Amino acid sequence: MNTIYSRQNTDIALGCQTSARYYYDKADLLDNFYWLGILTTIIFKMIWTNSIWVDYSLILWFLTTLFLDSYISQYTSKAAEFKQVFDEYVFGWKKEISQNTIKPVQILKSKNKTMFKTQMNHTGNDKPRGVKDWYEFVDDKENQQTALKKAIGENVYYDTSINTILLSILMISVLLTFVYFRDTTLTEYLKTVFLVMSSLSKKVITTVLKTLQVNKLNKEINLRLNLAKNEDDFREIQNIVFIKRQISGVTPSWIYFIKKNKITELAKITFSNTD
Fold first, then answer.
1. 184-230, pLDDT tens digit by residue?
2. Which residue among 28, 49, 144, 226 has its CA within the 20 to 30 Å range from the CA of 69?
3. Is residue 135 situated within a structural domain?
4. Containing domain of residue 173, as a range?
């Protein structure tokens, strides 16, 4: 028996995960609104090329995205904190979860009763998906070290798979801009991309850079997992996981929902060979 299997479905642990899901969902909602606003303003500009009001809307939206970035980052950091508390508890590093965490969880739960009930009673394979059995590849008979490797590795596996898809989509989008503007001069292309489409360019560039940063951290986590021998090693790895989780605007939920079942099938094969 290991603490991950025995603790991850306790009420307070599920409450922490649901609280993290609550804040990640808020960050995702704003991020999706961010992309929608970008695409909408660009479409307007393509339709009404010389409209001064569309130009004003582009400027206004660019300023709006600065506020959106701030809120997305705040919600992501808040979610990461709840996930860190959850992991430290289920990994057996803390005997109990403090009142400083329990109180915010209870407040959120009282205000979002339906969401919490659904999330806490559904697994990641149910519809709608929930947070029960979060570390689904951890077996009750596994020792603590094996369970820790699987749990941390599971997080990295999903991140890596989803971000690979995200980078592919972004790279294809960039290539399509070259095709679309193939008949313009380089100066006109740069003017369009960095002035007219400044919000889009900023979003794509920052998303790519953040995704590459997450991928770099994931590689370091995997490398350290292979070498981990004791609790101190796993704690150091978890600190990297926490840093990674605070990076906003990556690993979009819509890709997760579309590809989750396929990724899970591949993950089962991978983690069945973990010993």
1. 888 887 777 777 778 888 888 999 999 999 999 999 999 999 999 99
2. 49
3. no
4. 3-123+144-272
